[in-house]
Specification:
The complex is a heterodimer of chains A (about 220) and B (about 220). Chain A is mainly α. Classes of the chains: A mainly alpha (about 220), B mainly alpha (about 220).
Chain lengths: ~220, ~220
């Protein structure tokens, strides 16, 4: 097996890596928005419940969460594909992290923003959707980019529940070809090639958001 | 077959028996990651070619999954004749992976010290050594204590990754029970809950520490 064969073999798993990431975002984005906003708006027992759900997904060890849902859901009669279970677990874990950014972004806005909306006669949902969320989401966008990178990297875990992602392919190739240096270097490089541009985009965003006079930073 | 509570409870002592291994691995990895991360950050601050290279290494580590690093070390080191126990390899992997993140923590901790502080040490003609020991280091430690604590929790939650290298930590024990009894749900749920409890308890401790340190800062 030449180096090119190894690379092509690992890249065959790129589709699964991308699919788990994209499918994971389908869980992560709504969860982060709904629970982040809910934590911001609620008080008392309601807030405790919201925080409890967030902490379950955020503070659990994601490795164990994946195995628990992979093995336990069929026992209680829920049969989902390995892809769906992986996307759900990794997505909600990432969503738990992102929800804290949503909440922190909302809390960091000066209260004058909300008061100005009220003075203009806007309803509470309109203030949230038109004034608070746009500013909070822009301000926290670098954090969301970091969470996306964490999600892409976490997809390596799905190799443990039989999905043929890049990590799984690397292990398969390692079984037929004793060349661990080339194979696992290629695996690390493949993830680097995917994640580093996202990290650079995040840095660019961070510089823009923090720039004086930018819409969110200048308030 | 639903969830067998009695069986779950019977697996608690065995899994909890490995909590020492889990905490030990997490603690050693945290110290290792802090040491490597501090070294990385010092080299990066000095700048030059070495600084640029270390900067790239930090970016590379942060763009690649921890699981890929564990496989890399586990299979590549023996290829070069370096035979280490799986726990040593696991600790090395976690230390190396998190050093990239802790380097950023040290960077932020040092950058946050006001410029006037090192200037004042020069005005008072303190030696470089005294300036670092009595002025810079205490303020840096105060800045990094909380993020360091949070990364300790992250490392703790990453220790179940070492189950793939057959390190006998809590998830490994849970899988041992599962393969003996063919019941996966109960031991995995138990392991997950113990991890969640540990992570939440330590997070609370870190939050308290952060509040105390902030109070010292505003005295």
């Amino acid at each position: 097996m030449t180096l090119i064969d190894i690379w092509l073999g690992i890249l065959q798993g790129l589709g699964t890596t991308a699919a788990v990431t994209a499918y994971g975002l389908v869980f992560a984005i709504p969860f982060a928005l709904v629970f982040g906003v809910a934590q911001y708006l609620t008080q008392g027992i309601a807030r405790l419940l919201v925080t409890g759900v967030i902490e379950f997904w955020r503070s659990s060890a994601v490795v164990i969460l994946l195995f628990v849902f992979y093995y336990a859901l069929p026992v209680v009669g829920v049969t989902l594909s390995a892809l769906t279970v992986s996307a759900m677990v990794l997505g909600l874990n990432a969503g738990g992290y992102a929800s804290q950014a949503v909440r922190a972004g909302l809390q960091a806005l000066p209260s004058g923003q909300k008061e100005a909306g009220a003075a203009l006669g806007l309803s509470r949902p309109a203030i949230l959707l038109l004034i608070e969320l746009p500013q909070a989401l822009i301000a926290m966008s670098p954090t969301f980019v970091n969470t996306l990178i964490q999600l892409v990297k976490a997809t390596a875990l799905v190799s443990l529940v039989t999905l043929t992602d890049m990590t799984f392919r690397a292990k398969e190739i390692a079984q037929v070809e004793y060349n661990p240096v080339a194979i696992y270097t290629a695996l690390l490089l493949a993830f680097f090639i995917v994640c580093y541009p996202i990290a650079l985009a995040g840095r660019w965003l961070e510089a823009r958001v923090a720039a004086p006079g930018s819409r969110s930073g200048g308030i | 077959m639903g969830f067998d509570l009695a069986f779950a409870l019977s697996s608690v002592p065995t899994i909890l028996g490995a909590v020492g291994t889990t905490l030990f691995v997490a603690l050693v990895s945290c110290v290792g990651a802090a040491a490597i991360g501090f070294l990385f950050e010092m080299v990066r601050r000095v700048g030059g070619v070495a600084g640029l290279m270390i900067g790239f290494v930090i970016d590379f580590i942060r763009s690649t999954p921890v699981l890929a690093w564990l496989y890399f070390l586990y299979f590549v080191l023996p290829f070069y004749g370096i035979r280490l126990g799986s726990m040593t390899v696991g600790v090395m992997g976690l230390s190396l992976y998190y050093s990239g993140y802790l380097a950023e923590v040290f960077k932020a901790g040092i950058d946050a010290i006001p410029k006037g502080q090192p200037e004042a040490t020069r005005a008072l003609s303190l030696s470089r050594r005294d300036a670092v020991i009595y002025v810079i280091a205490p303020q840096m430690l105060r800045n990094i204590a909380a993020p360091l604590g949070n990364y300790f929790v992250s490392i703790l939650k990453a220790t179940p990754y070492l189950a793939v290298l057959a390190v006998p930590e809590m998830l490994g024990r849970a899988f041992d029970i599962a393969s003996e009894t063919y019941r996966y749900t109960e031991p995995l749920v138990v392991a997950g809950l113990i991890f969640l409890a540990l992570a939440l308890a330590i997070s609370q401790g870190v939050k308290r520490l952060e509040r105390r340190l902030l109070a010292v800062g505003t005295r």
